[in-house]
Amino acid sequence: MSRSHDVVVVGSGPSGVHFAWTLLEAGRAVTMVDVGRRGSPLPLPEASLPRLKEELDDPVSYFLGDAFEAALLPGSGGEYYGFPPGKSHVFEPAPGFGVESRGFAPLTSFARGGLAEAWTGGCYPLNDREMASFPFGWAELGPRYGEVARRIGVSGAEDDLAELLPLHEHLQPPVALDDHSRRLLATYEDRRSRLRSIGCRVGRSRLAVLSRDHDGRVACARLGRCLWGCPSRSLYTPSVTLERCLERPEFRYLPGLEALSFRLSGGRAEALRVRPLAGGADEEIPVDRLVLAAGTLSSSLLLLRSLAGEGDRRQLAGLMDNRQIFVPFVNLRQLGRPWSAESYQYHQLGMALDGGSPSEAVHGQITTLTTALVHPFAQRLPFDLGTAVRVTANVHAALGLLNLNLADERRDTCRVGLADGTEAAGVERLAVRYEPPVGEGARLRWVVRRARRALRRLGCWVPPGMVHIRPMGASVHYAGTLPMTVDGGPGTTTPGCRSRDVENLWLVDGSVFPALPAKNLTFTLMANAVRVAEEEFG
Amino acid sequence: MDRLLLTGASGFVGRRVLAEAARRGVPVTALCRRPPSGGRPVGDVRWLAFDVAGDVSGEAPLGGLLEAPPEDPWVGAFDGVGAVLHLAAATGAAPASEHRRVNEEGTRRLLRAAARAGVERFVFVSTIGVRFPDLRGYPYGRSKAAAEGAVRESGLRWTVVRPTAVFGDGSPIVASLSRLAGLPVLPLLGGAPARLQPVAVDALAATLLDVVGQPETVGGTIEVGGPEIATMEELLRRLRQRLRGRRGPALRLPLGPLTLALGVLERVGVRPPVTAGQLVSFVEDGVLDPEIGRVVGETPLPPADGSADVPAGRARGGDRSRRLRREAGSLSRVLVGSPPGEPVVARYLAAHERLPGLMPSSLFERAQVGAARLHPWPARMADAYAALLARESVLRRKTVLLLAILESSAGHHRSIDRPDARGRLGTVAALGLRGLSALPLLAVGFAIFVPVHLLSTLLSVSGPRRGVDP
What class, spelled out in words, does domain B3-173+196-228+278-295 have in CATH? Predict the structure, then answer.
């Protein structure tokens, strides 16, 4: 590998593929280095979830996994969803890769498409208030949200949430609501003023889910299989865009390579050091301009190792993640209604709880639990499981889950660095330390109280003892270790996401976020990657 | 030579008697309810399927080993018989009514049948426990004492033999005591001051055959024991030494509350390491009366400085899948009201090979799982308690695992996912009924498992968790 590559991108997640696609559309050449783990094809692509249980040869292994890894037994963390075995490749690490962590449960991905292969499709543009600490605003990012929506297909509506979720171009009409979501929304409309008075707004989710056929993909067929993998690809994942890239002759995709670090010389990255998964010696790929899109943790690790190779062993401060809280509820108006497993499985409605500032605002996704497995829910009821199963069947049509996302801010106490140990230079492990802000417990209780009150006004009851505060790291919305600043020193990036430590290095993933509003950041990752590609590489 | 009619021939002592009889060339008519497992015993043995208490066993003859039970169970049983050695007995954790039915009534029936058949020599094997001063909480001793009375009044040429604790390979007493001795903290029930004088099973078997042929013992009572006396505490410590290779901590426990809790355990069908009735043997001496005692054989007590040994009870894996199947059946009926299909059971078994935390590791968890295996109702009671006070206990994990498998399985998932629309009123009524029906379960579950959980916590203070399936 002696040829010099103009632009080398590391990682095929949402940032990487949209960065690459922008350059390819402009007629530029791009090389992408990726571990690129792939899953197996999804079985019975036409079958709905209940049919899957009947028609698969081995449904238990499909839903729970051969090692029962998706069975959530008491004492294993209190989650409401297991990782679907069909997506196990998304979370499978590269050999020898590991993270030491404190106060943080890190997830990383080496899959084609990255962690967003397992996302729930929420596309939430940031508004100007939320971008207050960003070196740009809606004027710059708005058109890029529209461009991403044009590529991937985003459905949604102009409703009460639009104040929080600015409208952009290329929005498809929303996907059809299931019965439960429709009734919840009707209740909200009946009681709008009472809910608005407590700062609660409810509206349609913005989803990377097709309500109309688009770009060779078909509209959502409501198979109820979202969690286990959408067989029609109506639910967008970055591997869709990666396939588009692969059709372009200017795209050079180098899978099966784990990027370890890059060799520095005079403040420039000279070559990317990679380790073939198939075995064999490490190799070097010469680079002219290097773009890291490996995800906040992996990109930080690459930079830290490379700097350590020059004797600069430092830590990066400011790691952020959206704290998530699961609030299960029973919609009393929905009790005793029929329900169908054939619906979009993830959230169809969103809820916003206003705060005094964007950092106090909370964004919730409302999922009606039509096709989730019931054992994580039933085990939390205070009855014997025989009774719990029957109670669950009685209230199934009325069950829902509000997934609250809380904002995070950069703090000096949340850091990533290289783990102390005996690893050889260049393959050190990452060490993560996260400390929640002072007063976190009171803040979480306050948020849960507000959510309970909002749900009550929506005619829903929150059973006691079932709220689950997820550990930090669980939402996988990592950001903030190399923030974009107008002027800053080492450990920051320019408004164009160019590193201030390495002259020819750009970072286009979550690591450059100066703040993390209470919204899934994936859509913004893609829009920002488009922005950087156009402004810096155009 | 006259035949010997031997009852309880497939039991722990009976098998040794058969072997000894074969060695001596004594022909035996062997009575037992179930044929013995293992190979055909050597010697001249005629097997009859028989329950001395009168209910003819429904079990079919196995491989020609057993003769089919005739219409009148006693017809032909005494053909060629010159003496009866009556070993059969209900022991251990059997309920008091069973002790009386088998030990007392059964012995009376056998005595009458022998008299009718004209067989005069009758050796009755009793227990040293009949001499305990207070037999009220000890149904086994009580029934044996009553049977001794019946034997003395029978008019036959009788002898009563009272063995002390019988030790040897497969000894139920040693198994019970070993379970106790293997606990993380050695529980010394009532302080365990009782003195014991155990007898080796082979020596006892030989003595029993001797007694049958000794006319000087007619009309008398003989006690049979070994040469060494030790306290229960000493015995438990030696067993512990052998099992775990060290002596470890011990805890002296008062008898009163223990008797109560153990009684509850037995009611729900759990085999605790020691039964309430057996508690008495921890405080009452079980040594020979010098007047009527015979010391036989070598001491069967483990040596005082014994080294670690592989516990005899550990190689019981073969029963495991059978128990797990029973458990899956019971829990499936709790969850979906029907037994599980074979693929579900296979997955349930496979999960036990792969997932941690599915082995009961305390007395409480063994009691939970034992209750669950018994029947769906005790399973729900145990789970109702666990749902509130032991959410991460083994039974909960097992039940949730089975639920996860059932809801992912063809057919079964429908009874969990079923979209039944009853309307709002109907649903509220159904939920109310569910609540009402769950309340008594909860009440009984608490009554049983609060003391068991307390006892279990008491026994396992600071002990390491062990992964032993009961």
Answer: alpha beta
